Amino acid sequence: MRVLYFSRDYTPHDHRFLAALAGSDHTIYYLRLEKRGHPVEECPLPQNIEAVSWSGGHRPASLPDMPGLFIALKEVLRRVKPDLIHAGPLQSCAWLAAVTGFHPLVSMSWGYDLMRDAERNACWGWITRFTLRRSTVLVGDCEAVRNQAIHFGMERDRIVIFPWGVDLTKFSPGGPGQKNSKHFTLLSVRSWEPVYGVDVIARAFVRAAQQYPDLYLIMLGAGSQAELIYNIFSEGGVLERVVFPGQVSQTTLVDYYQKADLYLSASHTDGSSVSLLEAMACGCPAVVSDIPGNREWVQSGGNGWLFKDGDPDAMAQAILYAVEHREILSEIGLTARRIAEQRADWQKNFPGLLQAYALAINS
User: Fold this and answer.
1) In 96, 119, 196, 267, which residue has its Cα 20 to 30 A from 293's Cα atom?
2) How far is the C-alpha of 42 from the C-alpha of 44, rounded, in Å?
């Protein structure tokens, strides 16, 4: 079967899907909508994946570009002659594919498109409904996505849900002595953008660090809120206790998970967060916002703690509780790893996508 994989950009998630699809029996063509700046060098396309040349994919795309991209996409379809289109996010790639009228269309939600973007305004809601009505199958990564898709008019029996999962051989607990026994280390890996609540993490750390002198924070990543984040740490008097490694490779990322005592995420919107699953696979307990996507993975006191979304005081209290009960963190980390092994194994979960393809073709 000839599959056109149409994605907004070329992220590590796209690379992982394409690498898995390259080992399938299908012929895979990759179409990129836009190219945004990535501080870390991109992985090359996997072997057996053919990149499609077209007018898009060279710079960020904007609304005025859409008519021209629609015409260009119709030309791509004439050249490639796919048997199936796999496209996402919903309001960009999947929408363009839906407008062409092509079937079968497997639309893939990236979480934020349904959990956040669909609720922006009436126009975004209409685009979401339009795309779902014209999608043969929807693929998502959590029950929260399924429920939101149904809310926007998608039929339940045309939704395939599977957690994207992680490579459990790569993301695994570290050996003895991996952690710094003198410090209690917190880890944040999300981009410094409003949707990920990194300002909540910064304010929570200031409150917790003022009560516990050996508390340190590693803030990976970067983003538009950099000035705000630095100001929060500086005004709170804790800047010297925060490390800023910037963007790191996937290989280096494993080391940070293994060295951390606690993984933090204050995201306001998430599906099955891959970074949360990576932390769990590494046996790192989590303190995360109490939102639907996170509730599917974290049980307070079991494999981490939930705190009220957007509340830095509640987050600080959860951090301090973990510090004061550090003797239980090892067992909590083991529980997190077991859950990852049971539900977040990429090798076991990926066939869900092939099942979605089969459902779309048979429909």
Assistant:
1) 96
2) 6
Q: What pTM value is reported for the model?
A: 0.91
Same domain, yes or no: 115 and 75: yes
Contact assessment for residue 222 and residue 39, using Cβ atoms and an 8 Å cutoff:
yes
Q: Please check whether residue 238 lies inside any domain of the structure.
A: yes
- Here the CATH number for the domain that contains residue 17 is 3.40.50.2000
What is the phi/psi pair of residue 181, to 5°? Answer: -70, -20
Distance CA(58)–CA(74), nearest Å, equals 18
Cα separation, 138 vs 356, in Å, equals 8
Is the residue at 318 inside a domain?
yes
Q: In the chain, what is the straight-line distance between the N-terminal and C-terminal CA atoms, in Å? A: 15
319 and 304 share one domain: yes
Please tell me the total count of domains within the chain: 2
Largest distance between two CA atoms of the chain: 64
The reply to whether 124 and 8 lie within a common domain is yes
Per residue in 124-173, pLDDT (tens digit) is 999 999 999 999 999 999 999 999 999 999 999 999 999 999 999 999 99
Element spanning 252, H or E: helix 250-259
